[in-house]
Amino acid sequence: MSSSTNFLLAIEDLTVSFDGFKAVDSLSLYVDRNELRVIIGPNGAGKTTVLDLICGKTKATSGSIKFKDTEMVGMPEYQIVRTGIGRKFQTPSIYENLTVFENLELSYPTGRSVWGCLGFRRSEEVIERIHAVADSVFLKELLEVEGAFLSHGQKQWLEIGMLLMQDPELLMLDEPVAGMSPAEREQTALLLNRISADRSILIIEHDMEFVQRIAHKVTVLHLGKILAEGSMADIQHNERVQEVYLGH
Ligand code: ADP
Ligand code: MG
Predict the structure, then answer these.
(1) In the prediction, which pLDDT does 93 show?
(2) Model pLDDT for residues 10-31, shown as the tens digit of each residue
(3) Residue 1 has what pLDDT?
(4) Best CA proximity match to 88, nearest among 177, 24, 186, 208
(5) Whose CA, among 154, 208, 211, 246, lies 20 to 30 Å from 40?
(6) 120 against 184, higher pLDDT
(7) Confidence grade of residue 118 (pLDDT, cut at 50, 70, 90)
(8) 190 CA to middle of ligand 2, Å?
(9) How far is CA 21 from CA 16, 43, 73, 152, 170, in A?
(10) pLDDT of amino acid 246
(11) Closest protein CA for atom 6 of ligand 1
């Protein structure tokens, strides 16, 4: 067995090249179970591309992405989701004309035909799950409210909730607190700390105050490569990081 066996996610020597330009360049990255990892780095560093590669939206040029010891490179996106990887894009994509309840209900991952005659039990189970998830994303009082009437922050929470309905073992979020109020950021930090108790989270974030609150470990990406990796304190004291990123 390889040394990567104990990691939930083990990325090795991953490269993607767009017309000869390596947006991600021989990247190796390992994420533990129940770890909350933050990726930071200047614009164009390759952060979003790393998430695109993991969820199968972008095809790797070379290298390996092992999730629970299974190779994800070459697997279609829907199958990667089923393996247990949930990904949230930068802008919220909820159904504005459906209620919070309905948005969450739609995200429950069971094919109806599979359950067939168990329909009644299924719906009880789903309802229970919707309530639990709505509670964890601060929306339990708003279950009957349509998406369009939520604040920007509440929409972001709803989308996190929609991902939680699928109970992913790895949750990936791209700048989830951009555009949120300070109070919403604080609540989001609580939320992420809480949900990382039963899953791993990979987040791209710019807000360093927020990163400080949530990160178990920080990876700094620059020109598609890892510039530094460690605790927030390690990163803050790293001279190369200060030069390329924090110094701006
Ligand atoms: P970040 O999220 O760190 O700001 P990105 O991962 O979005 O950076 O982009 C990294 C680099 O790769 C940028 O120079 C971007 O223009 C380029 N890039 C990203 N996706 C594509 C693509 N599909 N085709 C061509 N170039 C791309
Ligand atoms: Mg990005």
Answers:
(1) 86
(2) 999 999 999 999 999 999 999 9
(3) 47
(4) 177
(5) 154
(6) 184
(7) low
(8) 23
(9) 8, 16, 20, 35, 28
(10) 55
(11) 46
Say if ligand 1 is within 6 A of residue 109 CB: no
Q: Which fold has domain 4-246?
A: Rossmann fold (3.40.50)
pTM: 0.91
Taking each helix axis as running N to C, give the angle between helix 182-195 and helix 152-164, from 0 to 180 degrees, rounded to the nearest 10. 10
| Pocket-testing residue among 14, 16, 18, ligand 1, by greatest number of atoms within 8 A of Cβ | 18
Strand partners, 65: 11
In one letter, which amino acid is 104? Answer: L
Q: Rounded to the nearest whole angstrom, what is the distance from the C-alpha of residue 49 to the centroid of ligand 1?
A: 6
Q: Which residue, by CA, sits nearest to atom 5 of ligand 1?
A: 46
